[in-house]
Design a protein that fits this description.
Blueprint: H1 9-38, H2 41-48, H3 58-92, H4 100-111
Length: about 110
């Protein structure tokens, strides 16, 4: 005899996959921040696009790197809270779609320095 399948198992598994996707995104954004700081990203960027107006300042690179790393951390934290909220809604059969995290990420990426 097979054990009973837990209620909403597929929904919970999909929620976990979504959470892991947010974690991967956050880690990727943090890694990009480290790349900006470590590998003179702004200088390389200016050489690629032949734009001498981009400032080659270590301070600016460090600030941008910190910004991207911090943003990646925020994505991961918000992803966790979204996961827990969705888990609760699935258990209570009250799930409502919410695109706050997607909207926030999109806006920050568009207006980033």
């Amino acid at each position: 005899m097979q054990p009973d399948k837990p209620k909403n198992l597929n929904d919970h598994l999909a929620n976990e996959r979504t959470f892991l996707a947010w974690l991967r995104t956050g880690i990727g954004v943090m890694a990009f921040g480290f790349v900006v700081v470590k590998f003179s990203f702004l200088k390389q960027f200016s050489l690629i696009f032949a734009n001498p107006n981009i400032i080659h300042s270590k301070v600016i690179q460090q600030k941008l790197g910190f910004y991207w790393s911090f943003f990646g951390l925020i994505i991961s934290i918000f992803g966790y809270f979204r996961y827990k909220k969705t888990e609760k809604q699935i258990n209570e059969d009250t799930f409502k779609s919410n695109s706050f995290l997607i909207g926030l990420s999109t806006i920050i990426l568009i207006v980033s320095p």
